[in-house]
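Exercise (ungraded).
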Amino acid sequence: MNWPAGQTAFVTGAASGIGLGIARALVKAGAKVALADIDSQRVAAAARELADAGGEVIAVTLDVGDPDQWQAAADQAERALGPVSILCNNAGINGGGDLDQTTLDVWRWVYRVNVESQFIGISTFLPRFKQRGGRAHILNTGSMAGIVPMARVGAYSSAKFASVGLTMVLRNEVQGSDIGVSLLCPGTVSTRIAVTSGEGEAALRGTEVNAAAVEGNSALLSQGADPDRVGEQVVEAMQENQFLIITHKEWEPLVDAVHAEIKQAYVTFDGRHGPDVSAQALVDGFNPVTA
Ligand SMILES: NC(=O)c1ccc[n+]([C@@H]2O[C@H](COP(=O)([O-])OP(=O)(O)OC[C@H]3O[C@@H](n4cnc5c(N)ncnc54)[C@H](O)[C@@H]3O)[C@@H](O)[C@H]2O)c1
């Protein structure tokens, strides 16, 4: 049987968009899938669709930002479908505006859903993967906005930078084991994220939905890639144990500009501190405070 056939996957944000695309592709590849989402109605409908198509799936209602819900959600998935060996930390929302227009509540919500949730997901499943042994895989959904800074969505962009860093560290920490790690950095994908995020932010702030912003962002996103194709790309990449998954080449010059700025800073380096003998030692051997 070709991996991931017969494996059990836990996919967050699976009621819609890229998460649903990943779930569909996993089912197509023969995996069992726990579809987790905060939107219980939509995730139940998605699970019904996949079950009708012959998939072995369940719907799990989960707010990924709530640490108290994760163990129960993981247990529910494993009771129904067997030990999970694939975690896709995909749920995410956009929010806020210019930094001085973003409330602390919105900032924290964006960080909680986009990156803190990924840490909690890893904390929930990685010990299970290590204890059971065998091949396992963790995918985090970042964004090109986690490599290229995006003005006016600073909370989102900086949370995605954190997600990119978290995933790179995770890769280093499990290197040499049977646990694979992938980082998905989509460009524009045609999903409901503008709607979900607009409604979520309005509910959080107790305001009306900013319909004009939601409409404008939805129109931009509707020109993006098909989330089902992204889902297929993700499953192929996980099969190949590929780390970085890029969906659009159009971002290359913007990424190059970020790297060129770093390179330029080395060019103007004035050597005033002498050689840094500790760089590699620090990267390889920093002493954890928690043993
Ligand atoms: N669409 C794009 O252009 C794009 C680009 C780059 C990155 N991404 C990332 O892709 C991921 C998926 O987004 P999408 O575009 O498919 O959006 P989407 O809104 O279509 O799907 C996201 C799903 O996450 C769920 N969700 C939101 N908050 C949640 C929470 N607290 N707990 C559990 N589930 C929650 C929503 O209910 C929704 O079903 C996100 O991490 C997003 O940041 C999307």
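Further reading is listed at the end of the chapter. For now, observe: The domain at 8-253 is CATH 3.40.50.720 (Rossmann fold). The mean pLDDT is 96.
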